[in-house]
Amino acid sequence: MTDSTTAVARYDLLIRGGQAVLPDGARAADIAVCDGRVAAVLPAGAAAHADRTVDAAGRWVLPGLIDSHVHFRTPGLTHKEDWPSGSRAAVAGGVTTVIDMPNTAPPLFGPEELAAKQELVAGTSLVDHRFHIGVDPAWPGRIKTFAGTDAGSAKAFLTGHHTAPHVLDTSGALRELFEAAADSGLLLLFHSEAEEVFRLLDGWQGEPRRWADYEAHRPRTGAIVATARLVDLVAEYRVPAHVLHVSTREEADLLSAAGAAGLPVTFEVTGHHLSFTADDARVLGARIRLSPAIRDRADQDRLWQAVSDGEAATVGSDHAPHALADKLRPAADAPPGLPGVQELLPALYTGLAARHPDTGPAQLLAHVTRVLAERPAQLFGLDDRKGRIVPGADADLVVFDPDALWSLEQADIRSRCGWSAYQGRTLRGRVEHTVRRGETVYRRGADGSEFGPPTGRYLPRRTTHRA
Predict the structure, then answer these.
(1) Could you give the CA distance from residue 172 to residue 91 in angstroms, rounded to a whole number?
(2) What are the φ/ψ torsions at residue 329 (nearest 5 degrees)?
(3) pTM
């Protein structure tokens, strides 16, 4: 809109003075917002007025991040996390869109649970959101009942644990799932570890008694066996599949080769597998018990290579909080999973900066926006409005200070669980301001943080996805 007296453009919001990370590269620019969308990317210092202005001088402006792998524990497990607390953690970390996992109580197996969950979350979320549906092991073809709904992706667990008891563990059930997905057009997501491998190992060696033994009881063998099977099925059925939280170098090699050969398979790496190794279990113990397990340094190096080289399509937090009392049960009984949506951006940026010390913020943040904005938007059919700073896109924007050195303290933690495995670590890069569809949903201040209104929206399905 324009001011008729001065003929100077006027907007709802201007983010001024920052270096913007744009699809064609980073440059100094002012971002103008009207009606919740990016109205213009203006030259730095362009004549314009706005009802509200955010000063981003000395900072970088990123597209709002997409975390396609969170467990906000609604319904049924809200003593661990809920949408108000989970979404506060998200926006404090620059995440403006999440896709939530289906292993709740009850699990999201049918259209009626999808509708109920949409209603339950409405009015409680600071972030825009979508839900992955679940795969019922007793009836894998049930995913076809979501035809005509807003579901776009289905998650299957090939092994289970405390909060994921519904396991697809027979070859017949897995084939039924691929056949149903071929008919429904859903993108399949997998926790790719072989239950039968772990069952054999448990029968032979018993359950782990010490934290340091956990990785040996849930070894790379299970992940490699299951992922090789999935690649064969993708080749046979040509159904797109996205393998979550890849943890081993062998899987990264196999999936990268499959993608290069033209198979419709992609994969995710988590911030946890990039941040920790099995050696850290000696100090952090229960806090980093994860499924798949945290692996060794060589695996971590390969996963970082996959992120830097563009082989990994997405980086997700696998934000899976538990009450600390639950995590401190005996080694065999403690549930796997840890919070991470708030820590995802700084953990990723810290690791990239450490591994590429001679690379500047422009290139490092190009990697960040690729795996945390552009590619997840494309993969999950959100790129018509999310993942890029371009006119017409939702005004999801993050003001980020890449030079800030800081430590996550207890008072900073927004997840309901109240703890983080990253506490006490020195992190590089900090979120200063988060905007979701033109509204400020997080602002870090000297006297504490401020949060905006819980006006996050459910994101309807688009009919196609692109990897």
Answers:
(1) 41
(2) -65, 170
(3) 0.95
